[in-house]
Amino acid sequence: MSLIAAVLAVAAGAGVLWILVYGDDPWPPMVNTLLMAGATAIAAALFWALMAFSYRTGKAYETQGGVRRAHVLIALALSVGLPLLVALHQWQVGNLGHGPVPPGNSSKPALLRDSTQSRRWAPR
Predict the structure, then answer these.
(1) How far is residue 92's CA from residue 40's CA, in Å, rounded to a whole number?
(2) For the chain, where are the E strands, in sequence order?
(3) Where exactly are the transmembrane stretches of this chain (predicted)?
(4) Cα 60 vs. chain centroid, distance in angstroms?
């Protein structure tokens, strides 16, 4: 979660700098360092805030006693289910393995296919 926030912060910062400050002119090298330092600070701060929140929430649940089956199932579903959904999506689009082959296309992956067969993404 904190890494996603850091990536979004870098993207937003770079977008603001590009639109309002530097544009298409060459950017000073200092900007990359500042963007990465900001992303690291945001990721670390959000990570520690989430850890503190999780610790307090866990301590509050300890007073209720015992492990609840529903909580274990939800944690398991989130821990396994979400990465599985991402992996299935990446497989479907062809980033993992071959993925499904649309009708009429070769069964070979795009990198092994003859480049003259398919010019789907070629500039026109």
Answers:
(1) 32
(2) none
(3) 33-51, 72-91
(4) 31
Q: Higher confidence at residue 37 or residue 99? A: 37
Number of structural domains, the chain?
2
What is the number of other CB atoms lying within 10 angstroms of the CB of residue 14?
Answer: 15
Q: pTM value?
A: 0.48
Phi, psi torsion values for 64, nearest 5 degrees: -80, -20
Q: Are 38 and 10 within 8 A, CB to CB?
A: yes
pLDDT tens column, 78-94: 899 988 998 898 888 87
Cα 43 from Cα 50, distance rounded (Å): 10
Average pLDDT over residues 50-65: 85
The answer to the question of residue 112 being in a domain is no
Q: Are residues 59 and 6 in the same domain?
A: yes
Q: For the packed helices 2-16 and 29-62, what is the interaxial angle rounded to 10 degrees?
A: 150
Among 34-38, 57-61, 66-70, 94-98, the minimum mean pLDDT is found in 94-98
Angle at 65 between CA 73 and CA 77, to 5 degrees: 10
User: Is residue 77 a part of any domain in this protein?
Assistant: yes
